[in-house]
Design brief:
Shape: globular
CATH architecture of the largest domain: 3-Layer(aba) Sandwich
Number of strands: 10
Structural class: alpha+beta
Radius of gyration: 21 Å
Strand order of the largest sheet: 1-2-3-4-5
Largest sheet: 5 strands, mixed
CATH topology of the largest domain: Aminopeptidase
Length: 280
């Protein structure tokens, strides 16, 4: 029997694995990868793991003060019956960000028994609640193969906006696999060092820590991370696969379906931070 672990570490989440399940589920069939990545980015999440493989997931959407909504709870079929859903619920309910809330809600078709164990009950006054439901939202999301044409400079309407807002908008604009990849590498880069901040230059995301770490560009066939001091960085796992003839810069092109070695990327980002801190 596998040894299971429940973790709230966002760096461990496998966005592609979560998307693979949710996109086939009854409640979010067809959900784009970019939408899953954005949902994870703005939620409090836990994962269930068998070794390095993620086999379960749950998230809370919350203001962390008064209200939370439980969503996307699942355990892969081969790992059910091991109490993983209960353990993920226990983990979520124990997190400090979710203490003292006045109301928690969820929607389920067939797991009422599970949630009753944690105090959930049918609505006491359902006539007080309303919803705005768009069941075709995912069907109208940008197609992964849509033509990509981005301006080379920041449009006047975007000048002065916060970088985080512009990066969120770019991820949403890209949609599909490119939006999902950009969202995931953004999380990996930001988690690599607490001193990393986001900027917006040349109409693309830029990650900075005492100098530029890398930029995040999107093209029709790849999401590109360009490291302006790439030649000075050790790259033992050969992540750099583009701009290999530049005097200083090196880049990582991530194509559709490519696996991102998140640990290696995190190490590369940390090396770039150290280089900048050394004044190189």
């Amino acid at each position: 029997m596998p040894r299971y672990e429940i973790s709230s570490d966002p760096a461990r989440l496998d966005v592609a694995a979560v998307h693979a399940f949710l996109s086939q589920s009854y409640w979010s069939a067809g959900i784009p990868l970019a939408t899953v990545a954005r949902a994870i980015e703005h939620s409090i999440c836990v994962g269930a793991y068998a070794g390095k493989n993620q086999v379960g997931f749950a998230r809370m959407v919350s203001d962390q003060a008064t209200f939370a909504y439980l969503a996307d709870v699942y355990v892969l079929e081969d790992h059910r019956g091991q109490g993983l859903a209960r353990r993920m619920m226990d983990k979520l309910k124990a997190l400090p960000e979710l203490q003292g809330l006045r109301r928690l809600m969820l929607a389920t078709r067939d797991a009422h028994g599970l949630y009753e164990r944690f105090g959930f009950k049918p609505l006491a006054a359902p006539e007080r609640f309303m919803e705005l439901h768009r069941p075709d939202a995912y069907a109208t999301a940008p197609r992964p193969g849509a033509t990509l044409r981005l301006p080379k400079s920041t449009p006047p309407a975007d000048v002065g906006k916060a970088p985080a807002v512009l990066i969120d908008a770019r991820i949403h604009e890209l949609g599909g696999w490119r939006g999902g990849v950009l969202a995931r590498v953004r999380t990996v880069i930001r988690d690599a060092d607490p001193g990393i901040t986001e900027e917006w230059k040349w109409n693309v995301p830029v990650w900075v820590c005492k100098g530029i770490i890398c930029t995040g560009e999107a093209y029709a066939k790849a999401v590109k991370l360009t490291f302006p001091k790439g030649t000075a960085l050790a790259d033992p796992l050969k992540l750099f696969n583009s701009s290999l003839t530049g005097n200083q810069r090196r880049a990582i092109d991530i194509a559709e379906g490519a696996t991102i070695d998140e640990a290696a990327l995190r190490d590369l980002v940390r090396a770039a931070v150290r280089l900048n801190n050394a004044g190189a």
